[in-house]
Every structure is written in C-alpha cells, then in structure tokens.
Amino acid sequence: MSDRYASFVQSGAGRALVKRLGLPDPPRLRRYAPGEPILPGPVLLGSASGGRLTEPVGRILAAAGLALRDPATAVPDPTTGRTPDSAALVYDATGITDSTGLRQLYDFFHPQARAVQPSGRVIVLGTPPAECAGTREATAQRALEGLTRSIGKEFGRGITAQLVHVTREADESTWTSLEATLRFLLSGRSAYVSGQVIRVGAGQATAPVDWERPLDGQVVLVTGAARGIGAALARVLARDGATVLALDVPAAGDELASVANEIGASAVQLDLTAADAPTRLAEYLAGRHGRVDVVVHNAGITRDKTLGRMDADRWNQVIDVNLSSQERINDLLLERELIPAGGRIVGVSSIAGIAGNRGQTNYATSKAGVIGLVDSLAPALRERRISVNAVAPGFIETRLTARIPLVVREAGRRMNSLAQGGLPVDVAETISWLAWPASGAISGNVVRVCGQSLLGA
Amino acid sequence: MSDRYASFVQSGAGRALVKRLGLPDPPRLRRYAPGEPILPGPVLLGSASGGRLTEPVGRILAAAGLALRDPATAVPDPTTGRTPDSAALVYDATGITDSTGLRQLYDFFHPQARAVQPSGRVIVLGTPPAECAGTREATAQRALEGLTRSIGKEFGRGITAQLVHVTREADESTWTSLEATLRFLLSGRSAYVSGQVIRVGAGQATAPVDWERPLDGQVVLVTGAARGIGAALARVLARDGATVLALDVPAAGDELASVANEIGASAVQLDLTAADAPTRLAEYLAGRHGRVDVVVHNAGITRDKTLGRMDADRWNQVIDVNLSSQERINDLLLERELIPAGGRIVGVSSIAGIAGNRGQTNYATSKAGVIGLVDSLAPALRERRISVNAVAPGFIETRLTARIPLVVREAGRRMNSLAQGGLPVDVAETISWLAWPASGAISGNVVRVCGQSLLGA
C-alpha cells in the first residue's frame, strides 16, 4: 500500500489530488477583525451586456467604501504580460439570457483568472432560474453554478467563489440584503464559505446605523452556547452589537456562565427537550424583553453507531435534540408572537444532512430535517416577514474533531478547496450575517460553511 | 509521506476511509440480463402507520411477480438471533407527518440492517415536501433523505438505497411510472445508482405489453452513439425493443456503422453544431418515421484547461456541443411537433455540472446548463405531456477514464459507496428507464449514476 501511495504522490496528474489531500502549507485565510477595511485591495466589477444589477451593485460597493478598479487598468501590461491583481471580481451575469451568451463569462474571467489576490473573492450575480422569462434564460442562469463552483476549486490560494441570485422583484429590502451579503462575502467574515449559491429575495430588511455593529439593539437567543461553535457564536453576536441570551443545559452551567460573563450576555439554563421547555422559554423571553429578534438553534448532539447496532435511545435523543425540540420551540414562539416582523430564525444543518454519512443515520436524518424546516417554514413565514435559514458546517476544528485520529483528521481537513479545516468563528460569522436585520430579505437558504468540501450529494 | 499513509491505513477509525479509497475486493454488482427475475429473493414491504402507498405498491410488486416476505418471518430467529435475509426492503414512509414519527424508520430498519442480501435494495417511499400539508410534515419528509443517503453509505456489499417521492395527486400514469421505477430500482439495471431522490409525478405514461421489451415500437434518437456510453446506450435501447436512430459526427462514421449494424439501428451522420443541423435532423425524422418518441442528447465533449490557460475555442466548443446545439435541436423538434405527446427528452449532465471541477470551467458550465434545461423545460412541456430528465454520470470506465494515471484512477473508482467505477451499461440502463413510455410521469429529474459518489455540492 505504501509504495502505491508513493507512486501516487509522485505521478504528474496525481499531484493535483494529493495537493488537496495532504498539502503541507495550506493558505492562511484572511479573517475579519473589527475596524479593518472590507477588502485589502480594489474590486473589478464586470457585466454581461444588459445586466440589471451593475448599476445598483456599483452604488452599493462605492457606498461601502470599496475601491472600484477602472476596467481600463485591468488588462495585461504590454511589457510584462501580467494583469494587475484585484482583491475581488464581481460580475453581473443577469444580462445572459441564452447559453450562447455564456461566452461573456469567458471574456471577463479568462484574463483575470491569475490576477486575483490571495484570499480574494469571486462573486457572480445572477437571476434565480425559476424567475427567468423562458427556458433559454433559465438554462443559461443555471449554468452559472457550474462556473462558480469550478472557479472555487481551481483558483486556490484561499480565493472563494459564490453565485448570488438576486430576485427580479427587488424592493428596498432586497438592496439592503444584497449590501449585507456583499459585505459578508467580500470581507474576511466569509473566509471558509465557498462554492455556495445564495438567494436574496424581497422581505423586510433594515440597514444598520453602523455596519460595524450590524446587530445593535437586537435580542438574539443562541442555544448550545456553552462551548464550541455556540460559544464562538455568542462572542461574534456580542461583537456585532447584539443583546445575547446564551442558553445551554444545566450540566454545562459553569462553562455557560463563563462565556456569558465574558461578553455580557444573559445565561439561560434549560434542557430544551423537557416537555415544558418551550413554555418556560417563551415565558422567560416575554418577561425579559417582550420579544426575541433572532433565534439560533445551534444546540445539537451526535450519537454515532451503524443502524444495526444503534439502540433506540441514540436514535430518539438525536432526533429530539436536533430537530423535534426546535420545531416545538419555533411553533410556540411563533404562536405567542414573540418573534416580531423582520425577525430571523437560523438553524444548523450539516454536510451529513446533505450527503448522508456512515454511522450517522440518526444525525443525518435530523440534519436533513433541518433543511426541510428551512424549506417549508421560510415560505410559510413570508407573510409575517420572518426569515428562516440554516448553515451547514463541514470540517470545523472543535473538541469533537480534535478526537478524530490524526491522519483521518488530516484527510478531512484537506478535502476541500481551501485545503484546511474551518474554525468555529467561521460558522459563527456566517450565522451572524444571517441574523443581521439587514439580511431579512434572505430566506430559505442553507449555506454551507465547508471551504467548498468535495463531499456532497 | 509513506509512513504517514501506513499509519493511516493501520489506524482503527482510518480503516473505514481506507476501505473506500483502496478496497482490494469491491463487491461484484448484480447486473441485469434479459429473462432473469427482477430480484433473486423476497421483498420485505414495511409501512409507517397511515401510509398511502402501501396498498398500491403491494399490488405493483405482486403483479411484477415479486415474492413478498411475510413480516412475521422477518424477525430474529429466537435461537440464532439472526433475521432472515431479504433481497430488498421497501418502506412506505408517507404516513410520517411529524419528526417524532421518524422513530418508525428506526423500528423497521434497525432489525433489518444486517439482513439484506448482497446487491440488495433499500427503497423508501415519501411525499414530495412541497406537496406536504404543513411544515411539520414537510420537515419530516425531507428528513428521509438523510436516512436513505446514510444507509447507502453504510450498508455496503453492493446494496443501494433510494428515496422515491410519489405525488399526492396520483393518476393512472403515476402508478405506471412508479411500477417502471420500482422495476428499474429493484433490478440489476440500477446496479450503479445509489443515494438518489427520484420524483414520480403525474403525466402520460403507458405500460408496455411486455416489460422485457419496454421500448417496443418506440423511435429513439441517440446522439454520440459511435462509442463509449452512447454505443452501450444504443445496444440497451435496442435490447429493450426500440427502433434506434444512432447519430454521430461523420468522422466517427465507421464506428457508428459498426454499432448500428450490430443492433439493426439506422446510422445518422451529422455534425450537430452545424447551423443547418436542426433543420436537417428535423427533415430526416419527419421523412423517416414522421416522429421521434425519445431524444437522448448523449453527445458531449471535454476540452480541459484551467481558465487562465484556456483558449476561447475550448470554451466555445464545449458550450456549443454540450448545451447550445441541444437547445437548438429541442426547440426545432418541439416547434415542428415531431416529439408527440407522451414523448421523452433525456440529457446527460455530470458530477462536474453539480459540484464543479478544476480545469473544467467550460464543461461544468455546460453540464450545469443541462440541469437548468431539465429544470426549466420540464414544467414548460408538462401541458404537452413530454417529459424531460437527465442522468449525471460519476466515474464510469470508458476509454477516457482508462487514460487517467493508475492511482488517481483508483482513487476515483473507490470514492463512492460501491467502491468501484461504473460501466457504460449502467448509464445506458438508467437512460433507457427514463426513455420508457412507462416512465412518462417522471419529469424534471436529474438522476446520478455514480455509485453514490462522495463528491457533490
């Protein structure tokens, strides 16, 4: 086996695969720090002819203080043949109404492909295929996904690529949420998000007074806040200006108190699977603030076993904690109107919920259910102007993954376009973005935070 | 690197991953041969309480000559503790209307998990979440996907697992197409299809006189028929009773003639990218049979290069052959009404079209476009009762893949639940099933033929 592996490593075409599985020096990702500019360099904004988003996006980027590169300077130098680097490429592809028009993508991206800075960004803007005027346009718009996902796998050096679908029925909230999305995607907040399709619709979105405090005045409940991703999330939400209600089971009380004290949050000890938990939570929220603007269902457990060896408790606990208890809480908080218009619900799914996983029939079922919850609750709450989204983390460095044997862990870390595992803060930043009042016109999305993992369905 | 790999191979939990990447003895898959029974053993049919499909599916399975196991015999032997093997587990989950009801899945599958024969089948029947009565039901139905995808990854030994969504507005055509789907999925025809979600709707489906000749009397056009998957497809379609029109470029004329002669097909030499190709093809079809019941757009090319090194010809050719020319042909054949009511269009996408791929921005864009074509054309043609679907092959053993360096090829072969590459016949069988008149109520599906590849989006 070892010899076979050695020849694999040394084979020409093998190197590309090995690079992903065992790269010794993965790129250092640009991450967000308060006060820093969104991007360390200029944005090149391109457009297919007839694009409807070029003008509003140009305005948004300029208002956000980003430097737009003059397209005349984004051409190869006649002496060196090199195109000057951009920190981001943003391309309005909404003008492409037929597959023959896809050629415009090539014309824009081919000369820029090697002129993007490390940890740079590629964002393609499109129209949701379901909103397209005819089959030719819908086909061409759907084709964009193949381009962005390939760019994410190809460009390397920490560069991410996304497709952002913007509704044709844009209202003021659409532009606010598009600004929130561009600020998130262009900044280091989205360091570990790549290869995603994000839909910005209409709804109720409110721009913050200060984009450095996008959650100012917002009451945010986070479950499972004592440790791991939940603790990182509580910190990011507090940094972004939220009033955080940090909830966890009584057994994690000490850790929870420590997180809550650190960030000035309220600690809430509650076992969410208890029969009276929804009522007790609703009463707490009603008494404390009279409302909760954002509910983040971060609490989740694993109880892995292959199905033949799994006892019923393992099945029941995982389904109950990860899915059923969250449904009971949503339903009661909604029934008592504790989540106001413009509120947000954010769930946590998983790659296992998308692709399934060996030894995780219970977990994957619960996490696929979270996707179902987003898909079904988002349209049901449109009238009430409450958004529902989820994140789906990939390989994230936590206490759980630290226990995986070294080499399996290394493989898991490498099997993505960024050649490394993500950090809890990467998931937290993505949840925070979905929790912003400015993101209210984004609903029904499941956004993977996986470095564009190779794994999927 | 070698030592690290060796410790990887020898580590406890590492073995599971290695098993997939380098298994020395992948299971021998059961494949279809005319005259053989659909399954080599009995089917165990289970049901969640209140399931609406148990009765019709029981009738379909009995009519297809399958032996239904008495549930009383599908329990552990009191002496040995072993449950007798079934060749297939079929479970009607449509009665699950809340996540708490998911427990019924555990109750059925847990005792059967180690009692499925090699190359056996697991099929879960559900309701499309979009048709569910409320968010609780939609959530629970969506959760089924996590279960079937995990079972596909967990059961091993050539066992496949699928989720089949059956419309609530079932008509006679729905039952015919459900029968076609169950016959396909239970038989060796679906050897390399696993982890899929297949939607059976309403429409126009016609059961064959003889299920061994499901394409009897049907005129089927296959492009790219001279070699590889296309040649295998021409053979399978002819075996299934079709009148095959085998098309390829003039340069492949000799190979095309050889395939056509072998199966009694008509050879059609035509460059589909030529400006007059749609007209010439329409005239040929009008003159020959006055119609074409099925069009299979199998012709496709790759011209791999990273985007920065790709010349414009590579981009244009791939988009034109794989996407634009197919749109021009569809549109003209539909305009001239050469595809009758009940007709079928089948395209070929790719995992690259789903997940993107390094060095394939052109190919992935074209193949994502094929998914867009299916998504948009299927509803547009519902009124005319013409179905539109596609297959998305994974790692298939062809002349192209034979050129990949050994160890990379081995990795590609192993990174799926069946631990091996598929054969061209596996793709051909899947396309043929979608081409059957009995499958007419299946539309808007993209079915992967990838052995449940780990790769995805």
Describe this structure in words.
Chains A, B: Residues 218-394 form the Ketoreductase domain. Chains A, B: It is an enzyme of class 1 (oxidoreductase). Chain A has 457 residues and is of the alpha/beta class. The first copy, chain A, has three domains: 1-27, no CATH class; 31-200, NAD(P)-binding Rossmann-like Domain (Rossmann fold); 219-449, Rossmann fold, CATH 3.40.50.720. Chain A is built from 15 helices and twelve strands. Chain A has helices spanning 2-10, 14-22, 54-63, 103-112, 135-154, 172-186, 228-239, 253-263, 277-288, 312-335, 351-355, 361-380, 399-402, 406-414, 424-435, and strands spanning 43-47, 86-92, 116-126, 160-166, 196-200, 219-223, 243-248, 266-269, 294-297, 344-348, 387-393, 446-449. In chain A, the strands form two sheets. A seven-stranded parallel β-sheet of chain A has the order 8-7-6-9-10-11-12, sandwiched between helices. In chain A, strands 1-2-3-4-5 form a five-stranded parallel β-sheet, sandwiched between helices. The longest helix of chain A has 24 residues, at 312-335. Residues 1-9 of chain A have low confidence and may be disordered. Chains A and B meet through helix 1, helix 2, helix 4, helix 5 and helix 10 of A and helix 1, helix 2, helix 4, helix 5 and helix 10 of B.
